[in-house]
Amino acid sequence: MTKLKLIGQNAKKATLEVANLTIEKRNTVLVAMAQALKDNWQTINTANQADLAAATELSGSMRNRLTLDQATIEGIAESLAAVSDLKDPLAGPYENWQHPTGFKIVKKTVPLGVVAMVYEARPNVTVDAAALTLKSGNAVILRGGKEAIHSNQALAEVLRQVLVEQGLNPDIIQLIQDTSHDSVNELLHMRDYIDVLIPRGSAKFIDFVVANATVPVIETGAGNTHIFVDESAVQNQAIDVIVNAKTQKPAVCNAAEKLLVHEKIAAEFLPKIVQALTNAGVELRGDTATRAISPSVKEASAADWDTEYNDLIMAIKVVKDTDEAISWINEHTTHHSETILSEDADHVAQFMNMVDAAVVYQNVSSRFTDGFEFGFGAEIGISTQKLHARGPMGLPALTTIKYEVFGDGQTRH
Amino acid sequence: MTKLKLIGQNAKKATLEVANLTIEKRNTVLVAMAQALKDNWQTINTANQADLAAATELSGSMRNRLTLDQATIEGIAESLAAVSDLKDPLAGPYENWQHPTGFKIVKKTVPLGVVAMVYEARPNVTVDAAALTLKSGNAVILRGGKEAIHSNQALAEVLRQVLVEQGLNPDIIQLIQDTSHDSVNELLHMRDYIDVLIPRGSAKFIDFVVANATVPVIETGAGNTHIFVDESAVQNQAIDVIVNAKTQKPAVCNAAEKLLVHEKIAAEFLPKIVQALTNAGVELRGDTATRAISPSVKEASAADWDTEYNDLIMAIKVVKDTDEAISWINEHTTHHSETILSEDADHVAQFMNMVDAAVVYQNVSSRFTDGFEFGFGAEIGISTQKLHARGPMGLPALTTIKYEVFGDGQTRH
């Protein structure tokens, strides 16, 4: 048996224990874990220093996301403690009904079992994922990136120690130490042990996982998100929303990447929005019609329209009407978040109805696509697929159902 | 563009039309389709004769499932018409709430989009799948087995003709004419066009699909189902349930395949159940303990414990207690339907809680795992996975959600 299969087997064994913890016990453990992270911040920080020392090639923003100083660790601990306040995703009441022959069917909510998370640099995912899977009664297998391996080891060790102190099996939370590509590949095929695998990272990485996994996967996070400015848009409001969606946090999946402008307002609106985005430090690329009106905009290549920049870059295109905006978006969308800025009820209804995305906005910044903003209290990722979960995933996405049937000898004829 | 990609593209184009039909229109179309099948029974029967003439190698029961005489076609038409009476899976009311900044979030139920069904001999699946996907607002791509190709073509032609007569795009329902393995292989990778693929057929076929698909798949139907007879079981009742679960329709996935008997009652119970199953024509295979008590039982091989016979064969094993029964089942289950026959509330609770299957029964024949028996009015398959849908899948399994957000310029800070 390989090392990874042993981890899988240990996780499977731990599922029954964690699935049967009372909500009081699960919450007690979460609070104790938060305290332990605060108490051990120096150990974690020391491990993090080793990662930072090795990460000489990381860019500034990536380096920033990798850093665990005392304040960051306390923030992570507080997020973890907050999970204890969330509603128990396993609590009833459950639907139940009777078959004509008299047996009773109960549709229960149960944990998925073993959740595997594969993610890149950010060590806070280690704690977030452990907290949310524990709260929902699952065992978790964590496979973080090599850049954060020492930090992840220190964090996982603190969490596992709390499990032991609480009289629980530490294998409810396991971290894979092997950060080679081989470990991901093996994980993707461990159908006997993994009930769902959630990848988090670049679009390229998620595509690789989806193309290669035989375990069930929930796709997350790729966001080539568009904003369509209809002729009826309130233009000052549109400028605020566009600048916010593009620049408030450009590295994340719900940031806007593309702007489509109705041709009837293009001559009036484009110079204003180009000015506003340029002032905000955004590099602009556009189609011919855009550049005819705003010559400062660079020429967009064909590849631009399918690229998620995750950076202060935006591509602009002029479209004939709502129909063309919708077809264009459905051709290029990653099905994450799409926006119409419009006061025309018919155009809005058409856009809402026809655009194929998890979240469709009218006159709101797409930066709100987020489990916390949606009121779910937590987020394990943002699903861009249609099966099981779509959009921001809270605790219910980590559960499934089970039918329990109680009878007294019924047979079928 | 390949022929199959064109089918995919046509299906994608048809999704918006079918998603936006009123429930009245969807039901009108279903009723018209039922009538058209009855009116055209001779054309369908003639096509079916061609399949039957070519199917010289099919076994009696398979041949039977392939046959479409007038009565069978009328039965299929009536099932189709019955779908028009089912509740609209897209109907609200939808959950909705307000963000603190004032925008409104509506969680809508929407169709999946393009559903692909890949199935083996039974032509009735062509009509069932078309009816259920249409009712739930989806476009469907059907890929049946080569044994039924003429029957499937005739059935699909009748259904598509009704779509045309009703003023609709016939590509809401498309049948792939190419029954080669290549067509399945290509389908499994058409991520741009297929929102979910549901395979129906042998366990081997479903494993192949799961191992190779990059489109989202719902696993269905493999059923290595167990019955555990606890020491407290009412033995006469147990005999009825076991004989029913094994013999009432042995070729289907919810038929029982394995029997586990508590060692404390083995000496008393085994001779009775062996007699009853033998009388019902079941070939029995057993472990050493079983054969020591009932020598007429053949020796089971290691492979038996993981084999779904789909036939009048059953393997029997003596176990020490509920714990051993549960571990054994969790080791060998296909997560479909598992049964305990017991009057002991603690053992039942333990079994319900710990056995990892879609449906867990106390004192009921597993033959009831079925969308109609569960009161769903229809069934597109039985999911043995945990994501999206588990157990019998009714119309809601063919839907997903979409968040529609309505605001007046909200930005995130």
UniProtKB/TrEMBL annotation, chains A, B:
Residue ranges constituting the Aldehyde dehydrogenase domain according to the UniProt record: 9-301
The UniProt record lists the keyword Glycoprotein: no
Record's GO cellular component terms: cytoplasm
Pathway, per record: Amino-acid biosynthesis; L-proline biosynthesis; L-glutamate 5-semialdehyde from L-glutamate: step 2/2
GO MF annotation, one: NADP binding
Location(s), subcellular: Cytoplasm
Keywords associated with the record: Amino-acid biosynthesis, Cytoplasm, NADP, Oxidoreductase, Proline biosynthesis
Catalytic activity: L-glutamate 5-semialdehyde + phosphate + NADP(+) = L-glutamyl 5-phosphate + NADPH + H(+)
First-tier enzyme category under EC: oxidoreductase
SUPFAM superfamilies according to UniProt: ALDH-like
Similarity comment text for this entry: Belongs to the gamma-glutamyl phosphate reductase family.
Protein name in the entry: Gamma-glutamyl phosphate reductase
Source organism (scientific name): Fructobacillus pseudoficulneus
